[in-house]
């Protein structure tokens, strides 16, 4: 599979991000304690529940950055925006040196994020909520443009002569997932129909996908947005004796193996480990050295594409829990 040149412009080289400009201002949360050498504390509050394979990788990245930099990192997650907002408020009360937040439901956590900013706590958003990040007062966003990533997936599927795709959304109300499907529809040159499933019930998701394939044999492509759902879709395709091409977003050891087995065409990789590691690094630098990274613009961790050409290499890291 070839990379499209326009996807490459989004890739960011960390040294450039760290040294490209001099910050013009610092927030009140660049504390005297941090300046005097005491340990920096970073709070991470995401919409990913504990035990989710994707968010476990994000958590690992954040915690490893804390270990490498000598910073204390706390991590909590809840997919309910009301509960996530409560976790954000609880984090604000501890007066951390920085706050990292994902925003799958931006409107649902808006007030809590703005309260953190008003309290003088530097905020970096990750993964979801790129479009609202600056508006809510975050310094930068680390992740990928979900629409652009979806466009890349649509192009890859079009190159494989796929024209009738079901795009499987596994979290209701997650705007980023909807943007992935919208992006794929923008470039496929065919039909993309959204199918709603529940990531908490993989068996039911598998049956839903199987039923769609059996009901419409013209479906020649399945695009999933989660590794666990990708595995379920692979089984559904097999049970339905369908020839539909399967592609997915996000990487796991199961996904890389299915790519190597020619059961998944490609995976769009947003590199969740970086989404955990980089913001902890940025906020620790800010607390210790006054560096403010991003300039109000996003730092792209993706999209990249894992295909059979590079799946072996990625699989080595996936087994370590870092991809």
From TrEMBL:
CDD domains: PBP1_ABC_sugar_binding-like (cd06312). It is found in: Cell envelope. Residues 42-287 form the Periplasmic binding protein domain. The keyword Signal applies. The keyword Signal applies. Residues 1-28 form the signal peptide. GO terms for molecular function: carbohydrate binding. Keywords: Signal. One of its GO terms (cellular component) is outer membrane-bounded periplasmic space. InterPro entries: Bact_Solute-Bind_Prot2 (IPR050555), Peripla_BP_I (IPR028082), SBP_2_dom (IPR025997). Belongs to the bacterial solute-binding protein 2 family. This is Sugar ABC transporter substrate-binding protein. It comes from Cryobacterium gelidum.
